[in-house]
Automatic annotation (TrEMBL):
The chain crosses the membrane at residues 171-197, 228-247, 381-402. Belongs to the GSP F family. GO terms for cellular component: plasma membrane; type II protein secretion system complex. Its main location: membrane. Keywords: Cell inner membrane, Cell membrane, Membrane, Transmembrane, Transmembrane helix. Coiled coil: none annotated. NCBIfam families: GspF. It is a multi-pass membrane protein. The lineage of its organism: Bacteria, Pseudomonadati, Pseudomonadota, Betaproteobacteria, Burkholderiales. This is Type II secretion system protein F. Residues 76-198, 278-400 form the Type II secretion system protein GspF domain. It is found in: Cell inner membrane. InterPro entries: GspF/PilC, T2SS_GspF, T2SS_GspF_dom, T2SS_GspF_sf.
Length: 409
């Protein structure tokens, strides 16, 4: 049996769309006619999803996933609940397909169900959609299928995705206010330099009066902003593009990632964020029964910092040679000591998974605290910087007025 997506017209002339199972497109058309529908298009769900994906990629310029993080978490949670309740995988996918609100999600689920009905494993079916389901997602699904605990693995995976999204949202929201203040300050300063300063200062320039140095400097800066703003914008774009091109290379990116780990404030944030991802992923993989070496490799691939990923690769070599996991990670001198101690305790008690979960939760709380501290420190500094800049501009405008007033008296 294969899943087919169809579009048909009923007796009232209304268009209907849906998914039907059948041995061939002809049998699906027969089913539609038996229901009093006139079939317009019938195609396998897989090909329909591929076409929708290509169309969406073309419309969006090829950027971004089509399945949002929220949809991925909700889909994983619902599927886990249905499987734990004892529903077969194909029936669970059929239920989710019928409940899907977005056309792309409905096509995606129908395509996956069609692959499953065709005899492929669930992990192989997900592998046909790498933009929607990353490697670590498919690795966990494959582990759940091999151990017969797919429902439990998906449940833990849903917890992981939801916690990761919540943590990311908190970090983004924490930095939103400083970003808004920076943009507003830049806009105000640009307006003052391009419009207010020339209108006021040019009055004194026409009097042939010798202007203060600060006013002359501000007039030069104002002229540059008005005449060469496009050059500054092009230079900024070139610099950003150049930096991104350089960091795209393996050597410079590795050096930058090593440097960022030693940065006073950013280093702790980067190390904490990657530690949370590493510990959470490793805990899920070990709980799913994945061998320790394969679990370490998959968990290391989730790290965004390549320097830490290299250290995990070195730890894998030590573990393969017989070194304990806690000692191998401790030798890297990068992961927090709390994580190493908790793993050592888990190795002693035989419950590494629980200790990894505790380490991930603790590091997430510490990361949130550090983020709030950093943003609370940035906010007054940005306000002071904005006030100081506006004060300099006001002084540049007021100094000629004060001098002119003194001459009159």
């Amino acid at each position: 049996m294969t899943a087919f997506r169809f579009e048909a017209i009923d007796a009232a002339g209304k268009s209907k769309r849906g998914v039907l199972d059948g041995d061939s497109a002809r049998s699906v058309r027969s089913q539609l006619r038996a229901q009093g529908l006139v079939p317009m298009t019938v195609a396998t769900a897989a090909s329909h999803a591929g076409g929708a994906s290509a169309k969406g990629a073309k419309a969006s310029g090829g950027f971004g996933r089509k399945l949002s993080q929220r949809e991925q978490a909700l889909l994983t949670r619902q599927l886990a609940s249905l499987l734990v309740a004892g529903l077969p995988l194909d029936e669970a996918l059929a239920v989710l397909t019928d409940q899907a609100e977005r056309d792309y999600l409905r096509s995606l689920l129908a395509a996956i169900r069609g692959e499953v009905l065709g005899g492929h494993s669930f992990a192989n079916a997900l592998a046909q959609h790498p933009k929607d389901f990353p490697d670590i997602y498919r690795a966990l699904v494959s582990a759940g299928e091999h151990t017969g605990k797919l429902g439990l693995v998906l449940s833990r995976l849903a917890d992981y995705i939801e916690q990761r999204n919540a943590l990311k949202q908190k970090i983004v929201l924490a930095f939103t206010y400083p970003a808004v203040v920076t943009v507003v300050a830049f806009g105000i300063v640009t307006f003052l330099l391009s419009y207010v300063v020339p209108q006021v200062v040019n009055v004194f320039a026409s009097t042939k009066q010798q202007l203060p140095f600060l006013t002359v400097l501000m007039m030069a800066l104002s002229g540059f902003v008005r005449q060469w703003w496009w050059a500054a914008l092009i230079a900024l774009i070139v610099i950003v593009y150049g930096v991104r091109s350089i960091l795209a290379q393996r050597g410079p990116r590795l050096s930058f990632d090593r440097w960022i780990l030693t940065a006073p404030l950013a280093g702790k944030l980067v190390r904490g964020y990657n530690t949370v991802r590493f510990a959470s992923t490793l805990g899920i993989l070990i709980a799913a029964g994945v061998p320790i070496l394969r679990a370490l490799q998959a968990a290391g691939e989730t790290l965004s910092n390549r320097a830490m990923r290299t250290l995990v690769d070195d730890a894998i070599v030590r573990v393969r040679e017989g070194t304990a996991l806690s000692r191998a990670l401790g030798n890297t001198k990068t992961f927090p000591p709390v994580l190493v101690h908790l793993i050592r305790s888990g190795e002693a008690t035989g419950d590494v998974t629980t200790m990894l979960d505790r380490a991930a939760a603790g590091e997430a709380s510490e990361l949130e605290r550090r983020t709030m501290f950093l943003t609370s420190l940035m906010e007054p500094l940005l306000i002071l910087a904005m006030g100081g800049t506006v004060l300099v501009i006001v002084l540049a405008v007021m100094l000629p007025i004060i001098e002119l007033n003194n001459l009159v008296h």
